[in-house]
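Action item from last week, closing it out:
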Amino acid sequence: MEQLLRQGPALEPADRARLETVAIDLSTVFLAAIADVSRMVPAQTRQQALVRQIKSFVQHRLPHSDLSPVSIAAAHHISVRYLHHLFRQEEQTVGGYIRAQRLERCRTDLADDHQIGRSVAEIAARWGFADAAAFNRAFRLAYGVPPGEYRRHASAGHA
């Protein structure tokens, strides 16, 4: 919340409005939990806060190859079925969200000149892709080019 206050003025108005809504929802759920009146918080607000919490959890555990719907659900004391339900409401799947986040981290590392000493396979493994061939297919599908080619274009300033 402190970072939102500090960085808020630098954000676009639309982004600032969305973050304000998120901050209000999170504050509501937090205060309700402290007051032990969470049942008074609308179900939609609780679900939105839970999805944000789950996404944050995923972001922090992307490098772990054992990150899965089962481990996510267990960590949040919900069923796997309910976890899938929450993500369906977001019009995505849990696995799709994890994969997209991992691919984006890999893409960022491949474009980073400081990561040039790492192979594509090392970068993929760093972000939880255990199978290099599966990573190559997923990357090509997501970005239209194989990761090695993306890296070459990025280092030439064309990414």
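Closing note: The chain has a mean pLDDT of 87.
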